[in-house]
Every structure is written in C-alpha cells, then in structure tokens.
Amino acid sequence: MDPVEPQKDPVLDEVAAATKRQDWASAAARLQAALVENPGSADYHNLYAYSIRKGPSPDMSLVFKHYREALRLEPKHRGAHEYIGEAYLMIGNLAKAKEHLDALDRLCFFPCEEYTDLKKAIAEHERRQAAR
Fold first, then answer.
1. Kind and range of the H or E element at 119?
2. Which residues contact 108 (CB under 8 A, 6 or more apart)?
3. 42-54 and 24-37 helices cross at what angle (nearest 10)?
4. How far is CA 68 from the centre of its chain?
5. Could you tell me which of 100, 44, 96, 112 has the C-alpha nearest to residue 75?
6. What is the pTM of this model?
7. Which has the closest alpha carbon to 98: 111, 113, 110, 82?
C-alpha cells in the first residue's frame, strides 16, 4: 500500500505564489476570504498577519490580533512565534520578541529555522539600537 500523501491546500499554494511575487495585497485578500470559510486555521491567521505586516503600511493592531489568534488556536505554532516576534521588533518591543524566541527554544528540540531566523532578527535589532 502506498503511503498517503497529505492533501495540498490550494489557499496556501496561492498565498505562496503571491508571497514569492511580494504581492502582499493579493496574499492578504486571499487569506481574508479563506478565514471567512475557515476561521479555525492557525496557518491562515499566521500568514494573513504576515502578509499585512509585509505590506506598505501595516495595521499593526490587526497584525497582532491575527498572530495572537494563530497562537490561541495552536500554541506551538513555530511560524507564528517567529513572525509575532519580528512584529514586536517592528514596534520596538525587544522584550516581547525575546519571549517568543524563548518559546521557540522550548518548542524546537534542535534549533529550528524559526528560532534561528528570529534570533538573527533580534541580534540585528540590538546592533541597530547599539549604533544609535
């Protein structure tokens, strides 16, 4: 018997294509529509917040609302921990970013990509602050 392949999510495929083009508005619009149909998807909330955050004038209250919802739905969502940490750096809240780095440290048995990426972002933020 052949192993069952996980089903592809067409929403995530469309969002990945829009993200690759850095078409944040299309990604956000697709995810906003998908959340109407599936409000319980931590992945959709996480990527919706990410696409808003990456856009030209992000509504940070909306960004945090959706990252928090992703983490409420799936407290161990490594991507949401990484991205909310980066969002906290955008508003200058280093302590909250480090809280999410600590969460990733607990979630990843070995350093994972999300942990490594957030750790680099925090180090860069600290370098910029020290250079001021």
1. helix 113-131
2. 78, 114, 115
3. 150
4. 10
5. 100
6. 0.92
7. 82
Name residues whose C-beta falls within 8 Å of residue 104's C-beta, 6 or more positions apart in sequence. 78, 81, 82, 85, 112, 114, 115, 118
Alpha helices (H) along 3-112? 10-20, 24-37, 42-54, 60-73, 78-90, 94-107
Give the model confidence (pLDDT) of 61-109 as tens digits. Answer: 999 999 999 999 999 999 999 999 999 999 999 999 999 999 999 999 8
What is the C-alpha separation between 27 and 17, in angstroms, rounded? 8
The amino acid occupying position 131 is A
The one-letter amino acid at 4: V
Give me the phi and psi of 7, to 5 degrees please.
-70, 140
Query: Tokens 């996480």 — which residue?
Result: 46
